[in-house]
Amino acid sequence: GNPSKKRGKMQTLVYSCSKLGQIAINIIILFGFSGPQMNCPGFEPDPSVACTTNVQVTKRVDHEAYQRNPFGWCYEMCDKATFEWDMSVPEFALSICFTIAASIPLYLRLKEDKSKAEPRLEFIGKFWKQIKRRACWQIILYGMISHITFGVSNAAKMPANYVWLNLHTFQHQIMVIFEKFVFFIGLNLVRKYALNISWRKQVLYGSCLVLMFSSMYFIIIFDVWRNAWFYIFTDVSALFMYTLNFLASHAAMVEVAEPGYEAITYSMITTATNAVSPLSAVISYQLLAFFPTLNDQESIATDTPQVRRDFACLHFLVIVLNLSSLLSLPLLPRQKKETRELVAKGEKSTFWGAYAIGSAFTFLCYSTCVTFVTVRYHDVYGCMKILGGGGCSADESSATALLLVSAILLYCYGTNFYLSFWPILKGERRFSWEMFT
Questions:
Q1: pLDDT at 8 over 70
Q2: What is the DSSP string of 122-186?
Q3: I need a surface site. Which of 179, 190, 337, 346 has the fewest CB within 10 A?
Q4: Longest C-alpha distance within the chain, in Å?
Q5: Does 314 score more than 90 pLDDT?
Q6: pLDDT tens-digit map of 256-310
Q7: 371-380 burial code (b ≥16 CB/10 A, e <16)
Q8: Is the CB of residue 278 less than 8 Å from the CB of residue 385?
Q9: Which DSSP letter does residue 348 get?
Q10: Residue 85 predicted with pLDDT over 60
Q11: Residue 121's Cα: distance from chain center in Å?
Q12: Are 275 and 364 in contact (CB under 8 A)?
């Protein structure tokens, strides 16, 4: 019932509050996990316990510290630790539980007028009719396709940051807090000034600027300037632009829901969009299969010309994959008016409605399995390539994971090609650059 020009303000406000909560949690992590037990391999707070002789641990210890004090190195605080204290994982979990418990009374203030519930089968039937509308399944497919391809990242970047930039936990958490804060600022700027700007233009300009800042990592790769704070600046700046992408793809959801079905429609679309994150992780890690020199931190630390070339090729490949997400822009309506016009046309398809729901359900099942297995059986299966890990052993086959990656990319590009460009080849539409703006 909000006026068209004001619609989206509540949506951005909710996401803004969410980011504020995440900032609070990251501040706890910043001060709780920047101590020696979290950042110094093999650190032992109890002097009566001998230092470990495990080679996998000692090879990660600072060489000079180990040589200087071979029997007492584990009692010294290393350079990567910022504070002398540590918070244990149970203490951190307890603080989260306390926060959740403290927020429960706030829910009691929520008030909504009761309405008579529809019979369950009737409700599901009407919801299915809504899913069959082109306006709905097209936005669901856009969200999944664009988030898979734009979500691919350089999996070698984080280990490289630690060996090339000496990035430690304190700096990393500072970066994360800045990212959340910038996201918060970006949401509020969009809420105030950009609610009625074309969503396609927001995604287009935002993506190009993200990739521009991402390209600055080549300066670090080729050792032109390796500085942790320079990296943090480029990463935080890129996230500000990513805000535009995020909000534009979510804003259309509000417009396709029929009265009485807003919550379930919004939940359906956001679930479908969020469920694809593990698929992006699988693609990110499987790209490393083509660059063996980037598979571990020790190899990256050698910093040879070959390592730099491989890193540059991988980074360029990731940028190209991210850029290809813009090919799905024709699936995204330009603004609220165009979305409502698409709804008003009433175009329906049982096949594409089932295709969108089936895709979302498949991705959700995979995402749930990955989350469960990597948490419950982290030590045994968490490293498996098919689950988005880097591999549990040197001889673990990449065939299954590469087959999954091929299927994911075929799904993304095949679906988008059929919906956006096949009608052009058949002469039903004309190609125009305005399809992307």
A1: no
A2: HHHHHHHHHHTBHHHHHHHHHHHHHHHHHT---TTHHHHHHHHS---HHHHHHHHHHHHHHHHHH
A3: 346
A4: 80
A5: yes
A6: 777 777 778 878 888 888 888 888 888 888 888 788 888 778 889 889 999 999 9
A7: eeebeeeeee
A8: no
A9: B
A10: yes
A11: 35
A12: yes
Is residue 404 a contact partner of residue 285, using CB atoms and an 8 Å limit? no
User: What pTM, to 2 d.p., does this model score?
Assistant: 0.81
Q: How far apart are the C-alpha atoms of 405 and 402, rounded to whole Å?
A: 5
- DSSP structure class, residue 208: H
Amino acid type, 234: T
Helix axes 134-150, 262-274, angle to 10 degrees: 30
pLDDT digit string (tens) for 62-73? 888 888 888 888
CA 374 from chain centre, in angstroms, equals 17
Q: Which amino acid is at 218?
A: F
Residue 329: which region, alpha, beta or left (left: phi > 0; alpha: psi -120 to 50)? Answer: alpha
Tokens read off for 72: 């007492």
Q: Nearest 5°: phi and psi at 122?
A: -65, -40
Helical pair 350-376 and 134-150, crossing angle rounded to 10 deg? 40
Mean pLDDT of the chain: 84
Whole-Å CA distances, 187 to 11, 40, 48, 192: 10, 37, 52, 9
Residue 279 near residue 271, CB atoms below 8 Å: no
Q: What is the C-alpha separation between 209 and 385, in angstroms, rounded? A: 31
Q: Determine contact, residues 343/135, Cβ cutoff 8 Å.
A: yes
Q: How far apart are CA 149 and CA 286, in angstroms?
A: 14
Give dist(CA 228, CA 69) in Å, integer: 29
Rounded alpha-carbon distances, angstroms, from residue 103 to 26, 39, 59, 99, 110: 18, 32, 45, 6, 12
DSSP state letters, 380-394:
HHTT-GGGTSS-SST
- Determine the 3-state secondary structure of 214 from DSSP: helix
161: tokens are 């940051």
- Which amino acid, 371? T
Per-residue pLDDT for 37 more than 90? no
Element (DSSP H or E) covering residue 104: helix 89-107
Tokens of 41: 């391999």
State the Cα–Cα distance between residues 130 and 215, nearest whole angstrom.
Answer: 41
DSSP H helices in 293-429: 297-301, 305-323, 336-345, 350-376, 378-381, 399-416, 422-425
Q: What are phi and psi for residue 259, nearest 5 degrees?
A: -55, 130
Q: 352 pLDDT exceeds 80? A: yes
Assign residue 405 a region: left if phi > 0, alpha if psi is -120 to 50, beta otherwise?
Answer: alpha
* Dist. CA 309–CA 312, nearest whole Å: 5
pLDDT at 250 over 80: no
